[in-house]
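Sample entry copied in:
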Amino acid sequence: MDNTSLANLHPLTVLVIGANGYLGSAVSSAFLRASNLPASNFFRVYGLIRRSSSARALALREVIPIVASLSSDSLAAVTQSVLAHSLTWDVIVLCTEPSQSDPVAQTQHWHDVLALVRGLAKASASSPAGEGKAVTPLVLWSSGCKDYGVTKLHGDPDLQPHTESSPLDPPDVVRCRMGSALRALDIGDTGVSFDVAVVRASPICGYSGSYYGAALEYAAACAASEMEKKKKAKVLKFTANANTIMHG
C-alpha cells in the first residue's frame, strides 16, 4: 500500500466497555473482522477494562486496552483516560455488568456509565480543529430478554412471545440495567449528544454466543449473490419448529 493510500484511510473509533467479558470479547472481535466498510474506513477497537492483568489478552486480539474502573476511579479520571486515546468516538458499546449483590452499587454503576457516555459524546461533538471532525457517537446498549420478566410455560394457552412491544417487568437483579437503558433512549431521542440502540445479546454475530452469527453470514452471502445476479431481492426464510424457543 503506497503512502497516498495510507493517508486516505480513516479509522472509525470503537470503545467497548467491558471488553474482556464473554459478550465484550465477541463484540470486539466482530468489529475487527467487519468487512462491509467503505475502502477508506476500518474499525479501531479500544477496550475499557478494570484490571491491568487483562490488558495483554486484549492486545493479543488487536484490541487496544484502556485500564480504568468506574468503581474505584473517579468519573473524571476514567473519562480523561479514554479521551487520552481519542477525542472522538464513532461507536460506544456497553457490555458491562456491576455486582448483583449490592443494589446501591448497581445504581451508582449505571449512573456513572451513562455519565461517561454523555461525557464522551460531548467531547466527540466538540472536537477541536485539527483533531478530527466532530461526530455523533452510536451507542449500543446491551440488554436482555430478562427485561420482560418471565413468560408462561410451554403449553399454557396464555403463553406469548417477548417482543419489543411487550411490557417491561424485569426481576430486581436487572432492574437498574433496564432503567438505565430507558434513560439512554430518552437522551438519545433528543438528538443532542448521541444516537442509541438497545440490543439483545443473543443476535450478536460473535462466535459461540449463538447461531445468529452463522445465520447472518448466510443471509449476507445470499444478498450478495442476488445483487451480483442483479435480481430482485427475495425474502430469505428460516424455518423452525413452532415449539422451539427462538431467543433473540
Observations:
- The chain has a mean pLDDT of 83.
- The first strand starts at residue 10 and ends at 17.
- Helices lie at 3-7, 22-32, 55-60, 75-83, 103-125, 172-189, 212-228.
